[in-house]
Design goal:
This protein is an alpha+beta fold. Helix content is 24%, strand content 30%. It contains six helices and 15 strands. Strands 2-3-6-5-4-15 form a six-stranded antiparallel β-barrel. Strand 2 and strand 3 form a beta hairpin. The termini are far apart.
Length: 294
């Protein structure tokens, strides 16, 4: 019996060590953030459906008109705090030499503010950047919980920079699915159209609360080549709960939904989004970026 007890203890300890060696890295990965200087490139998924998200929205964007060799690309973000914290998608700020935030004022041109990368979570495609000066505009509110299937939403962003108007663009639709490709519950599908430049922008409910962060869309051409069928315009966003978790881990304060707030008209929602949605510019050459500041 003493020998059997010793054998049982060793077996138990061995199982504990195996569990720790297998589970600890996974648990760490689920809750860890990468500081800006340790940020790694987002790993492409081997799932064919997920890979189509990388064309065009997750793939490195082409240069803006007049910018040679891919020195500049633009996307969207939204402001969270008065100190200038901005949430955007991680792929938006990948390999940036300099990051700038552009605020468009109707009839008054643009104000450009330098920013720097603070935290990044490649697995969730989220990044936190911070302006170099305080923010005196509006700040976004994040809603708790998952949007319902069929819920009406509005997407705000700076679409097709250099081709369309430089002001904020608004599209509307519904939550078309509460999961992404491969039943990824960190994502949701949208019927609201998104274009190049929308990545990192807010998805708003009818009350003006952020319920998601635009990630990308299916590439209809790639889907057609793979399946022989032409896919509808399907966009995807990172769930708001994932963004809330990211911000809590990064210890960044943010406003939450106001209880009892009334629903807003589309016009009021667009006006609200315009107070905290900004254009995020990624520059590979610091000299060009600093030369473009106004």
């Amino acid at each position: 019996w003493p020998l059997m007890r010793k054998v049982g203890v060793w077996v138990f300890l061995s199982l504990v060590l195996i569990f720790v060696s297998v589970r600890l890295p996974a648990l760490k990965g689920a809750d860890s953030l990468l500081p800006a200087d340790d940020a790694e490139q987002r790993t492409a998924s081997t799932n064919p459906l997920v890979m189509t998200l990388q064309a065009p929205e997750l793939r490195r964007r082409p240069p803006a008109p007049g910018m040679p060799n891919g020195d500049h690309s633009s996307a969207t973000g939204f402001v969270l705090t008065g100190r200038g914290d901005v949430l955007t998608a991680a792929h938006v700020v990948e390999d940036c030499g300099v990051i700038t935030i552009s605020v468009h004022h109707a009839g008054r041109g643009e104000k450009v503010i330098q920013a720097h990368l603070v935290q990044v979570r490649p697995d969730d495609d989220l990044a936190l950047i911070r302006m170099t000066q305080p923010w005196d505009g509006g700040t976004a509110r994040l809603r708790q919980g998952t949007p319902r299937l069929g819920e009406e939403v509005m997407v705000a962003g700076y679409s097709l920079p250099g081709l369309l108007a430089s002001s904020l663009h608004i599209t509307t639709g519904i939550v078309s699915t509460t999961a992404g490709p491969g039943d990824d519950l960190n994502l949701m599908g949208l019927s609201a159209p998104v274009q190049l430049g929308n990545s990192g922008g807010p998805v708003l409910d009818r009350y003006g609360n952020v319920v998601g962060v635009v990630m990308g869309k299916l590439d209809a051409i790639s889907i057609a080549h793979a399946t022989g069928a032409l896919a509808a315009d399907v966009s995807f966003a990172i769930q708001g709960e994932v963004a809330r978790r990211f911000l809590n881990l990064a210890r960044v304060p943010f406003d939450t939904a106001e209880p009892g707030a009334p629903q807003r008209s589309s016009e009021d929602l667009a006006a609200l989004a315009n107070t905290f949605t900004v254009r995020v510019d990624c520059w590979s050459d610091p000299d060009i970026a600093l030369g473009e500041e106004r």
